[in-house]
Amino acid sequence: MQSPILRKLFLGFIQIHILHHAKKEPVFGTFMIDELKSHGYDISPGTLYPIFHKLEKAELLTMESRVVDGKIRKYYSITQKGDEILSQAKAKAKELTHEL
Ligand SMILES: [Zn+2]
To answer: Number of folded domains in the chain?
Structure first.
């Protein structure tokens, strides 16, 4: 079982990671789960979707429904505000990585 502190830190990393990809192209749940898996994060839909909703509510992401293969898929794109937050988070992450 992961420590609560580590879990909280990883959730922060995951939020930055989502914003980073949502800036490049609209992202959806299973894409992000696979992407995070390739970076060593085993995240379930039950954990990921509330993060999407939180970022949407904070107006860092916008959601658009599209029909893919007869099913509705929710795509998330970064907003202007999200882009600004991402820039600040990246600067801090780079600074910290440099120090570590
Ligand atoms: Zn990535």
So the answer is: 1
